[in-house]
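Hi everyone, sorry if this is the wrong subforum. Our group has a chain we'd like a structural model of before ordering constructs, and none of us has done structure prediction before. Sequence below.
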Amino acid sequence: MQIGATGFLIFFLVFLIWFWNSVYVIKEWERAVILRLGRMLPDAKDAGLRIVVWPIDKLYKMSMQIETLDVPPQDIITRDNVSAKVNAVCYFKVVDPPRALSQTKNYLYATSQLSQTTLRSVCGQFELDEILSDRDKVNAKLQIILDQDTEPWGVKVTKVELKQVDIPETMQRAIARQAEAERERRAKVIHADGEFQASAKLAEAAAVLAAEPAAIQLRYLQTLTEIGAEKNTTIVFPLPVDIINLWARSVARGEEIAEAKKLPGKTG
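Answer:
Right subforum, don't worry. Here is the predicted structure as tokens:
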């Protein structure tokens, strides 16, 4: 009787060990890859309670969540021969767990190393101005290349973003001078354009005043009104423009008469 109880206890302990190694709970964001006698089953198991035959079967859990990979700063030389340091962040996830487990020993490390080499090679194909101002183009090219290279591993790269671009201090000063010169150029162009528009409007106003002489008098009166409104202590004596015109004509006529009187004396 005692031996039977001991044997039952041993059997129960063995059953507990087997049950502990055979029952798995797969979470909603995980998938299970099962190896049976070293051969991988083609389909991954979904979330829920899974029982395998241990030690014949071995189960591996694979996360389907998006992984965030921080790519460390890389020393690059741009297409216009500028040295810089660029770092990025890469977002990817496992879409085919059997391939991710069978094709790479560590898909996280493999994706990290591939991201670093791709970042150096792709940034070397762009000029510094393009990397600084057109990051969307660089990000899109990085994402396409990484996605193509990681597809055989069962990994999908969803997004790649450049985080920071560090350039030498001398280059920063050169960029600052370039930006300052560009601002000055725009200011001069805007000033010249304003002068051109003002001259065009003045030409149009002169044409209107030449066609309507009375408009000059009205403009003269309006100027007097503005002067009186701004400086109330100033006394203004308006002088009609017609009087100025008569005086100018009389002066011109007097000069003509004087010239005519001089002509006979010169001939004699």
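For your construct planning: The two ends are 171 Å apart (CA to CA). The longest helix spans residues 169-211.
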